[in-house]
């Protein structure tokens, strides 16, 4: 009995010695668990956005011709080529807006042309003596938060102004194709062969801003069993052309 009582007394004493330490650990653990979420939230709020452009200049291009199927297009973007494309079809009141991000090669061409024009320092009228309003009117605009300017023309003998307008047209046409093929895949798969014919025409005429941006989409299309086989085969042929 003495042995059992002694053992019981020893165990109780040991338990009493361990309880404070265990309580302290639990308290410390609770305190440690309370702090990290606050610190983490602080880091998230203060984390810099490395994608924010140092240059706050805003660029805009616009095309309008009420009788065209795509009657109105606007491309807007920042200094690193991120922005949006808005377009409206003839007879439709609402426009469609899609995000756009230029490839480095496209952005380089665009910015070089803006720089060549010295757009904000110039008051040049880019309109040629001949009027081709039936082909549509272009507007170029720039705003650097201090100065802004817009120029309008339907044809120009200034090669830089005209090249810039056509670069933006390529961006718009590529973005509109991506939107149309996405809608067709989801709702009207039988329209995909015709859209791929249009894409090949744009590619052949050098009317795409950067065909390599379409490679992931074309890879999806060539294995998409929801669209006709003829469209899948066409996507595969276009991929081979772009890869050359």
Describe the secondary-structure layout.
Layout: H1 2-46, E1 58-64, E2 70-77, E3 82-89, E4 96-101, H2 104-117, E5 137-143, E6 148-153, H3 159-187, H4 192-204, H5 215-221, H6 229-243
Helix pairs in contact: 2-3, 3-4, 4-6, 5-6
SS strand fraction: 15-25%
Distance, first to last CA? 94 Å
Mean pLDDT: 84
- Proportion of residues in helical segments: 40-55%
Please give the radius of gyration in angstroms. 31 Å
Q: Based on CA inertia axes, which overall geometry fits?
A: globular
The poorly predicted ranges are 1-49
How are the strands ordered across the major sheet? 4-3-2-1-5-6
Secondary-structure-based class equals alpha+beta
Q: How many separate domains?
A: 1
Number of helical segments? 6
Walk me through this protein's architecture:
- Helix 5 packs antiparallel against helix 6 (229-243).
- This protein is 50% helix and 17% strand.
- It has one domain (58-243).
- It has helices spanning 2-46, 104-117, 159-187, 192-204, 215-221, 229-243; strands at residues 58-64, 70-77, 82-89, 96-101, 137-143, 148-153.
- The chain has six helices and six strands, in the order H-E-E-E-E-H-E-E-H-H-H-H.
- The chain has 244 residues and is α+β, with helices and mostly antiparallel strands.
- The protein has a six-stranded antiparallel β-sheet with strand order 4-3-2-1-5-6, covered by helices on one side.
- It starts with a helix and ends with a helix.
- It is globular.
């Amino acid at each position: 009995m003495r042995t059992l009582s002694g053992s019981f007394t020893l165990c109780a004493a040991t338990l009493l010695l361990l309880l404070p330490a265990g309580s302290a650990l639990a308290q410390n653990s609770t305190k440690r668990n309370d702090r990290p979420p606050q610190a983490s939230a602080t880091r998230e709020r203060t984390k810099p956005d490395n994608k924010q452009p140092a240059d706050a200049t805003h660029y805009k291009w616009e095309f309008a011709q009420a009788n065209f199927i795509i009657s109105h297009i606007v491309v807007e973007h920042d200094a690193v080529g991120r922005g949006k494309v808005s377009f409206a079809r003839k007879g439709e009141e609402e426009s469609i807006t899609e995000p756009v991000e230029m490839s480095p090669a496209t952005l380089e061409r665009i910015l070089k042309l803006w720089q060549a024009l010295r757009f904000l320092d110039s008051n040049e009228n880019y309109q040629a003596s001949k009027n081709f309003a039936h082909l549509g009117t272009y507007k170029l605009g720039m705003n650097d938060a201090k100065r802004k300017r817009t120029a309008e023309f339907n044809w120009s003998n200034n090669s830089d102004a005209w090249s810039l307008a056509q670069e933006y047209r390529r961006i718009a046409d590529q973005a509109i194709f991506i939107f149309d093929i996405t809608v067709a895949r989801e709702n009207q798969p039988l329209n995909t062969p015709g859209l791929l014919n249009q894409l090949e025409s744009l590619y052949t005429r050098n009317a795409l801003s950067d065909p390599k941006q379409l490679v992931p989409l074309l890879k999806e299309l060539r294995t998409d069993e929801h669209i006709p086989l003829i469209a899948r085969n066409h996507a595969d042929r276009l991929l081979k052309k772009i890869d050359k």
